[in-house]
Records
---
Amino acid sequence: MTFLEKIKSAQLKNKSKLCIGLDTSLSNIPEHLLSETNPVLTFNKAIIDATKDLACAYKPNVAYYEAYGIKGFEALEGTLAHIPEYIFTIADIKRGDIGATSDQYAIAYQEKFPFDSVTLSPYMGSDSVEPFLKRDDLGVFFLGLTSNQGAKDFQYLDLASGKKLYEEVTDKIREWNKPKNNCGLVVGATKPSELKAIRERAPELPFLIPGIGAQGGSLEEVLEANDSGIALINVSRAICGASRRMDFAEAARMAAMKFVEGMR
Amino acid sequence: MTFLEKIKSAQLKNKSKLCIGLDTSLSNIPEHLLSETNPVLTFNKAIIDATKDLACAYKPNVAYYEAYGIKGFEALEGTLAHIPEYIFTIADIKRGDIGATSDQYAIAYQEKFPFDSVTLSPYMGSDSVEPFLKRDDLGVFFLGLTSNQGAKDFQYLDLASGKKLYEEVTDKIREWNKPKNNCGLVVGATKPSELKAIRERAPELPFLIPGIGAQGGSLEEVLEANDSGIALINVSRAICGASRRMDFAEAARMAAMKFVEGMR
């Protein structure tokens, strides 16, 4: 299946646009798990088991696994192996480096850890992302417009051309998408009017939309702004942190269910 | 010691501005090492032993270790432990993400793998790098102007203010540097005239300068353009790939010696 077919098939299977962000660390999981051999992996498996009929995608945020060192990458490997084949996977890495280094990142997150897609930073330009643009079955979500305060520092800069930098980035990514139809955009959920404008600018690109739940974005407004475009709506803390007691998996399921019902 | 003191002390000790880039993978080391338990680690240790009186810094490019999976992070840990205390270390990660995720990267490359500094992408703005700006003893080199073709896509864009994007980035990083004096810039070596202009714009920032050797930058022109600023001049392939036979460590030493003599 192609990148787009994989997303569509996962969304159809569970009638869901919900992507669950697995931002797991020893400090944000229930205490009773800390005696497990690999608590992060045990936690992720329980979350996956409790939500695999609700989510269309899982997105481990690799920073959390790096911060846990070698055991973190063991957890990442085990988590990926535990995700059912029909669910879409995203390695949230936000890397970006020159060609030879980018080749290595592609080996890492397409072969060593075989994810369906990754997130990348576009900042270093075309040759820095080229190793990820070669296969139509593996995709890339590029940072388009992020929902953090610091986005103002560069992404909103006015260019001499009259565009904002994030608009120029969007246009460039539409070009990068042409050969293999395997690019998408990360667009924050906290500013629906801008999400709507970017959706109009790039109707063909799938969007990965973080910022719902703990970060304050409204699901209803996001769905309206996104119109009929393909969107993966990411929720992390509001699901994975729904309870820190014995019932954490069940609480995660209940929270996920609410989001999915809102989407349906 | 502060970030700047650490760099100066390492440079004084070996009378050298040479940073050796450890971009090590199974496919670029001598074949006779492949039977070792961890060939990447064995290779790095031999390179360090052969050059630790010549280099002022070592810079593992973390992409290469990620591409090697869990064994790669074991190699990274062992490499870091093998670098003498008096030599400066840089984790070349080029990460950049929102605050909570950036916190995790800081844990990963300041605590779990205790490097003296990292490279980061500035693209997501101030709150995305803030976790790295808290300590005056640990530094950050931000992508300023890179030497790859793709740099043209965004870094050279003309802004409405009259600046180029990389000039705006440089100015912003001078601001970020103020509280703790712990920021630097990555500036490619292949365009000395631009290096000179950025040096004039940011005389106080240490530069990490890749692009010498295999990428074609001239050492003499770079030294002249950098003037009296603090610079770490990175060479990877021209040293670590000097020979792929039994004599690889000796060949690396000879290559490193030539660069250091050119600097002295």
---
Amino acid sequence: MGDTNKNVARMIYYALHALQHRGQEAAGICVHDGKSIHSYRGIGLVAEVFTETQIALLPGAVGIGHVRYPTSGAHTLENSQPILVKYRDKTIAVAHNGNLVNSGELRSELEGAGDIFSTTSDTEVIAHLLVKEIQRYDLADAVRAVMRRLVGSYSLAIMCNDTVIGLRDPLGIKPLCIGAIDDGIVVASESVAIDALNGRLIRDVAPGEMVVLRDGEMNCIRLVNSPRPAHCIFEYVYFARPDSIMDTKLIYDVRVNIGSILADEHPADADIVSPIPDSGITMAVGYHQRSGIRYKECLMKNRYVGRTFIMPDQSMREAAVRMKMNTIRPNIEGQRIVLVDDSIVRGTTSRRIVKMVKDAGAQKVHVRIGSPPIIAPCYLGIDMASRDELIAAHKTVAGVETVIDADSLGYVSLEGLIRAIGLPEDHFCTGCLTGIYPLDIPGERSMSSQRRLTDFPPNDGGG
Amino acid sequence: MGDTNKNVARMIYYALHALQHRGQEAAGICVHDGKSIHSYRGIGLVAEVFTETQIALLPGAVGIGHVRYPTSGAHTLENSQPILVKYRDKTIAVAHNGNLVNSGELRSELEGAGDIFSTTSDTEVIAHLLVKEIQRYDLADAVRAVMRRLVGSYSLAIMCNDTVIGLRDPLGIKPLCIGAIDDGIVVASESVAIDALNGRLIRDVAPGEMVVLRDGEMNCIRLVNSPRPAHCIFEYVYFARPDSIMDTKLIYDVRVNIGSILADEHPADADIVSPIPDSGITMAVGYHQRSGIRYKECLMKNRYVGRTFIMPDQSMREAAVRMKMNTIRPNIEGQRIVLVDDSIVRGTTSRRIVKMVKDAGAQKVHVRIGSPPIIAPCYLGIDMASRDELIAAHKTVAGVETVIDADSLGYVSLEGLIRAIGLPEDHFCTGCLTGIYPLDIPGERSMSSQRRLTDFPPNDGGG
Amino acid sequence: MGDTNKNVARMIYYALHALQHRGQEAAGICVHDGKSIHSYRGIGLVAEVFTETQIALLPGAVGIGHVRYPTSGAHTLENSQPILVKYRDKTIAVAHNGNLVNSGELRSELEGAGDIFSTTSDTEVIAHLLVKEIQRYDLADAVRAVMRRLVGSYSLAIMCNDTVIGLRDPLGIKPLCIGAIDDGIVVASESVAIDALNGRLIRDVAPGEMVVLRDGEMNCIRLVNSPRPAHCIFEYVYFARPDSIMDTKLIYDVRVNIGSILADEHPADADIVSPIPDSGITMAVGYHQRSGIRYKECLMKNRYVGRTFIMPDQSMREAAVRMKMNTIRPNIEGQRIVLVDDSIVRGTTSRRIVKMVKDAGAQKVHVRIGSPPIIAPCYLGIDMASRDELIAAHKTVAGVETVIDADSLGYVSLEGLIRAIGLPEDHFCTGCLTGIYPLDIPGERSMSSQRRLTDFPPNDGGG
Amino acid sequence: MGDTNKNVARMIYYALHALQHRGQEAAGICVHDGKSIHSYRGIGLVAEVFTETQIALLPGAVGIGHVRYPTSGAHTLENSQPILVKYRDKTIAVAHNGNLVNSGELRSELEGAGDIFSTTSDTEVIAHLLVKEIQRYDLADAVRAVMRRLVGSYSLAIMCNDTVIGLRDPLGIKPLCIGAIDDGIVVASESVAIDALNGRLIRDVAPGEMVVLRDGEMNCIRLVNSPRPAHCIFEYVYFARPDSIMDTKLIYDVRVNIGSILADEHPADADIVSPIPDSGITMAVGYHQRSGIRYKECLMKNRYVGRTFIMPDQSMREAAVRMKMNTIRPNIEGQRIVLVDDSIVRGTTSRRIVKMVKDAGAQKVHVRIGSPPIIAPCYLGIDMASRDELIAAHKTVAGVETVIDADSLGYVSLEGLIRAIGLPEDHFCTGCLTGIYPLDIPGERSMSSQRRLTDFPPNDGGG
């Protein structure tokens, strides 16, 4: 995120708040005040990490921010972002959404050349590569050189002294978009961050494109080309906010469409259709519209479960899910119910919810899922569980149905899902659903054709 | 809330968590361990106030808890509850939901008799009255004597040494219900607290009834009778959770019914119906079902706004509402939209939301409200604003329509609302909607007949 | 403490800070802004409880404050002071230094008359008595009436609406003094609080005297007379700061005198004299001066041990005392040492220190104590331990010498101590040293003559 | 600090606590549990940063710790220590006491070779050099190679995986010593850290010596030799604790000697000699012993001033020093007083104290200082102020006397100071007192002969 406004830390605070669903573990902001970089990071939600006092200690008209998604590693401050590195007269701050597949190799190679690291994060690897290339080349060539080395997903916000750069990987795996606000430009993971600043979405950052914000001006250059993009399909299913527009598609529409297609592919003889909140709500509305089955909520979520909530111990384990979600018993008793959710990962939560709904008196529980079965792990930025833990990696749909004790279980087809989104069918990363990845991942199958990166023809650049 | 389980503080913690929507200002728990009372209170949400350490310092098999609703006064710990008073060998803890109308008079009278207070709360007045009467009479007679003195709304949880008492005022203004859990009895404001403990709702506490929990046994006695109850009608419209059953009615059903009746009373020529989240969701579903107009969300709420969130300052005031709620622009552009909400208090928020939706490109915005106009203040426990601030106290519906800039505005009728609930029409307090109160309130009109309290015929008691 | 300055909370903060040694458990400030009372209390040191924000929320030109000494009871906020009680149009805040002997009786009697309490503290009893009498009499008569009822030690700061009152018990057990600052008057427990505000000590408050500060004016009235005072002798030995002047005597001088008299009464054949820091320092200087034995420190205190310090567990118990105090081994080896301390309570610490010093190579350790043996508990405000725990209550001096493993042990005589102070011999409470108390204490012996209180002749009052 | 005990984090905690006077800004501990390094750092005192929980999260039998002295830079967590760097299979943690003179050059050079940094601290420069050399050489040669590059003062605790290294710079500028505890070896800045663990001081680490602790064994190797050491003379005057033994000398004795020599060099016709607490106490005792002038304290320090203390604002500036120190007026009135302090830096505090003592009625105030005038800045680890701020850099003794308004002013001579310490006269760094430094410092004069470092003859090593 970058902007030429004076009180940019405050604006980044609001933008990060709008993106809070993308990471709740840690938050950080770096700004540049014309002379030097100021930075503050902490463990927790944006609103927990930053106080008025902290914001006031971050003067500057340009800056970047980050919310950290809890992937691997402990909750340590050291791995929080933006990561800062210093080199000669330059301080470079990097905020990274995504995951590198070859960070181990790159790190080894950099260490072979003598590089020393302060953290275990792949973001520091990117920062080191960048610092090196910037010594040799102009900015565009330096970034292009770095991109040639990186294998993985990476939407990046970089601040190099007072220049802010937005960068999207050549496959466009993770989202990134550009917006205009009153007196500046914003680059953000989702358009809701632009909305929060009362701005206007200009367009998505293209795969392989770099957006440079300097002295109040924006320059966009496509650096690297790939035969076709590989957008993470799970952003549409689950990760993004419904009110975001991502690669031209409104997530809300996509999810209504998914529900509608689910109703076609997996009809049910039922009295009501009910979402598992919050993720299943929009899909359930779509299912209801298409099927004509009455929409009625069976489960109510408690809005107040926070970080410090004391979860029930052994003696009350049954109650654990109840702290987060309650059944509306009279809506359930004697009913044949279609329960709609976005996905099944381990199956544990689905099983508990089906049990809760049956305990509340449901006659039948038909589970409908807005994604195909997840059969393989994600290496590109979504913390989905290992292959061992993924229930659909080891069981047929019938097997999963038995485990979660549903009267019927239907997953949307991959074709249906892609149709719901409305982008070309070969424009996605569907690794978790097919086991075939758009990048070479050791031990996994890849669409080897996809990663033939070429430099972008120079005449395509520009702002 | 009372229970005979060993780890009762932990259970009260979960129950309070389920009731968190009833008050976010402060939370407190008192327990009795067979010898003495232990108490802890703090400012903030239940999950913020209590840690494992605090819970561990509250040993005991019986107890009561409270979440404080921010009415008047500063956020001081002194006014948090349960309030404790000590008298000879007795320690009495009182948790109060509601508001006394005559607390000033009672306080003066008690002061006339020499009573000295530590707080400004009306709960301390109740505690003093109770202590006095308990010296003279047995428990039932003492509580009856206190009830004769109190004018106002009061659902009370009282702990007198190791006896826990639940008490509901003679008009049953505020809710109170009884549930059975594995090894004990719970009395709580809403049935969701019983659900959280995996318990079973037994029934509502009757107006004027006292529930005594002692040595693992429950005794119920109706102490005072009133010609008819006066349940707060706003609990159904707004305050209670949709998954609660209150005075035999499921709130979810009531709100669907309200939406349905709204559709009949105020149809609209529109493309979509959308709730103002969260309060309008269930009513919007009802409107959609009855009208056949497509259900589509136009507004998305940010789930992460917390206590410490830094709100935009003057220069970004427009953005304030945007931090909490975002428009889904593509769902809005060119559409004729029915926006459903539960109520309009000052009109400020409604005006801002209508503006946001119009700015996002709506062709028409028809506002539909699930309650009649609020024309008078609440003296009985809901912090609704003063008469001056209430927009409908000074303007006709057409006037409000103009102020909020809606293309049309329709409120459900009082008759429609009562029909949606399904209880007899004279069983409600409708003070805020009619200006006529079930109790004598200085300067206001009252249904004088209602408050002719009589002692309940002794043969009606029992457990 | 009272003052007519605008920013009085800030000044009280500094005064409390100077009095921090009198109580580290909790701190509180109440101020009056001309309209109402504002109050804030918290657990911890003054500097921990109050921030700039808290001070800013306490506007007012008059006020009182308190630091709480950890006597009995848990570290609960409820027992922190000033205690506030409300009665009709009056709010009365009371801060109390001392201990009532008859608070149980008074409480029962007040309860008999219907009084209800919020805490278990004797200060609330005083507040209740005061509220009652103020209804009936003018201020002087009301306070006199209260004093007739109280048996015990009590220096009080009272704020009744915007009037501040300082009051000292008829025996003057606890200290209280008056000072002038730039634009106001201060009443405080020790003169160092006046020094902290750059003020000038005017005089001690006389036993039985009331100081009234109102509208910038001071009025002093002696309300109750006693044949002679009974100043707590332990204030001189241990409790007060050396730089305070108390009942006309500089504590520093008193302690040098004690050391000097100790040297006469218990000379030693030694190479060096060393204090046990910090309490023994001034006495050791006196011993050195009188005896001519070289002053050399053998023990060094760590200044940084704070509230949250993690003390060694079982496996390192020996180290516990080492965390607070270190031996200076080269100053000790082969030396015959006089170790000077102010008192021995349980004997445990003395034993550990003698062992440490011997382990560090001392040839002889002669212990000299600046008070006579403590043979009886204190009922009047110093938390000294129960009779069971007091080593000198059960052992002769020779017995104590054996337990602490000193080569010789000498206590100053009571006569010597009184001579060191320089006030008449019958002007002290020496309960802990003699077992004879100036007040009737059930089960203890008393100087029954002393408590024949009479009203002070009216012509003695005035300011 | 290193040790083979199981609960080493806890022991490091106690050792750091004993060294708290060496740095109050931040504290950190790193331990190795046989597999990996665990680390925790925070802003504040040791007792504020670490809780039982934090200690429990630091398992391991070896470790190092650090307390940070507030030199330049903001109070940022990033500059706190130990600093961690990661390189291939090694994690290296470095804790540094001292200051590099050539860190800018080294940093540039490393950057020239491509090194990238995460902080602005010179400790990270040391860590990088070390990582590089360790790839090429065995440990002793690697460390020797690093030492050849470093110009400045550095006592280092290094942990390279599970090997702990203590290292003292070739001039021995900063202290470092070795101690034996029950089941292990400790290397620490001062012997009081060994005392805290009930250990026994073995000896000082020699200048240029490396101590290696691995698998419970200690190996000592002198790596680099210098013609003579250059111990920081200010450690003796002010910085070290009186109970430490440093380079074989007990600090307490040194300070008594200083006082004694001061009395010879600058006698005074006075009634009493009084320290400025705490730093002047031991010197004042020495002055008293030699001069025969009575020892009597005139100033009393408040022990409770902490980090969060609210200092007086403009309107009370006079009071600022009063918050920390109070005059004992009766000890001062009419007296001719010798005030003894360790040093004068800016003169501001001395002036305020002299004024306070005169305001309290002193007839004469003779100031005696236990160090020669500070005429030049320290580049080697003590935050003394810039040359501009140093009062004695610009004024004669008579000039300083006038500024601080003393009746006479006497500094101990450099010869006297060195005699008081008792080490050879050319074994010190006296840069701040003479302007001549033992190292080449750009723009300053140096004892150029001193820094002719040679490798230590190999037969001198050993343990």
